[in-house]
Design brief:
This protein is an alpha/beta fold. The strands form three sheets. A six-stranded parallel beta sheet has the order 3-2-1-4-5-6, with helices on both faces. Strands 11-10-9-12-13-14 form a six-stranded parallel beta sheet, sandwiched between helices. Strands 7-8 form a two-stranded parallel sheet. Helix 14 links the parallel strand 10 and strand 11.
């Protein structure tokens, strides 16, 4: 199959490279000339494990190409995927669909023969209807089917998620469209990936509903963590105890500083706005968003309490800046309000992240960036673990205790055992577990 992928951001580049690896002929299109030039040089604009090798392999095999001009790729394509950004619109939280609609207009002008135009971007319910209207208005003679195919990729595990998906959701009631999409995803049939066909609006809703539910699970266990701290319980054991119930499951029950990233904050806001537009109140989702935002800022107070209630004149070392490990994504990262709060309370902040520091500099310019975890901890009154990078899971505790001004660790990801920290002589504060006094 011949595929044009409009957009070389996270979703577009990963999807395009994986489709090419399936054996399809894929051209990724982007207006950013510098990005396309970098891709031609083999430079990947995002950090995703294994993506550089995947892109290089398929470029060498001539199954994957990059361009700034969509005319020929769209004209030649059996399917055109729209994978442009849909950020939260300033002021009201609605998804900004201007890039999607602009892409639809350009695509319409270049269509030739029967083509399936697929919205891969996360878009509100009804967006596919508007994309179809734009295409037919721009090019009344177009032989086109507009479908929805939401992505369910986790940053840091996106290639595996694409090749071994829990499900593939396709929204179209057109038989020709179904056949094209079935052919595109046929290579996954050996993995027995469920291919679910539904109406276009339902497919659009599935994406938002899935993210809102996962965000709810995270926020629920975070509130249980707060109660566990006060009541003397261990939230990790609570999570395991409820997660063993098949109706609940163990995933997304890890207490922490709150969710961030490119999807959950943006998509929960957008879902709330969609509901308001339809005169429906999503009180649970509204509460999830409010609780999560408050939690991120509260983490700075947790650090302050670990140091006796004052951060004035103290140095705090922060390990991990990205919203999760194995990505360089800083969008809505919990580290941003945490560090801002620490500075507001009078602390001097040092930080280290394995891959995210370049991206972090624009968000957090007033801190010192260090070359590794130990230079970051050197002279610090407290060490805060914000992102659970594997590099932080086996730190030399004896070395840390020697170089830190005070042996205080605040572990916002619960990656260490309290008894180990107690044995090492640290004051150790984690999330939803009893405080260890060193």
């Amino acid at each position: 199959m011949r595929i044009a992928m409009i957009g070389t951001g996270y979703v577009g580049l990963v999807s395009g490279a994986c489709f090419a690896d399936f054996g399809h002929d894929v051209t990724c299109v982007d207006k950013d000339e510098k990005k396309i030039a970098a891709l031609h040089r083999g430079e990947i604009p995002i950090y995703e494990p294994g993506l550089d090798e995947l892109v290089a392999t398929n470029v060498k095999a001539k199954r994957l190409g990059f361009t700034t001009d969509l005319k020929k790729p769209v004209a030649d394509a059996d399917a055109v995927f729209i994978a442009v950004g849909t950020p939260s619109r300033r002021g009201d939280g609605h998804a900004d669909l201007s890039y999607v609609y602009a892409a639809a207009r350009e695509i319409a002008q270049s269509l030739s023969g029967f083509t399936v135009v697929v919205t891969k971007s996360t878009v509100p319910v009804g967006t596919g209807d508007e994309v179809e209207r734009i295409i037919r208005e721009t090019n009344p003679n177009a032989d086109v089917v507009v479908a929805s195919n939401p992505e369910f990729l986790r940053e840091g595990a996106a290639i595996r998620d694409f090749k071994f998906p829990d499900r593939i959701v396709v929204g179209t009631s057109d038989e020709r469209g179904r056949k094209v999409m079935s052919d595109i995803y046929r290579p996954l049939s050996l993995n027995q990936a469920p291919l679910m066909f539904t109406e276009r609006r339902t497919a659009e809703m599935i994406k938002y509903a899935a993210n809102a539910f996962l965000a709810t699970k995270i926020t629920f266990i975070n509130e249980i963590a707060d109660l566990s701290e006060k009541a003397g319980a261990n939230v990790q054991e609570v999570a395991r105890g409820i997660g063993l119930d098949n109706r609940i499951g163990t995933k997304f029950l890890h207490a922490g500083p709150g969710f961030g990233g490119s999807c959950f904050p943006k998509d929960t806001k957008a879902l709330i706005k969609i509901a308001q537009d339809h005169d429906v109140s999503l009180r649970i989702v509204e509460s999830v968003l409010a609780v999560n935002e408050n939690r991120k800022r509260a983490m700075a107070r947790k650090v302050s309490q670990a140091l006796g209630g004052s951060l004035r004149g103290k140095t705090v070392a922060v390990l991990g800046l990205t919203f999760k490990p194995d990505t360089d994504d800083m969008r809505d990262a919990p580290s941003i309000p945490l560090v801002t709060g620490l500075i507001d309370m009078g602390a001097t902040v040092k930080a280290f992240d394995p891959v995210g520091m370049e991206q972090a500099r624009g968000e957090l310019p007033d801190i010192t960036y260090c070359e590794d975890a130990y230079s970051c901890a050197d002279g610090a009154d407290a060490l805060v673990i914000v992102t659970e990078w594997v590099q932080f899971r086996a730190l030399d505790l004896d070395r840390l205790k020697t170089i830190m001004a005070q042996p205080v660790i605040v572990d916002l990801r619960n990656i260490y055992r309290p008894e180990d920290m107690e044995a090492a002589g640290f004051t150790y504060d984690s999330v939803g577990r009893p405080l260890v006094q060193g």
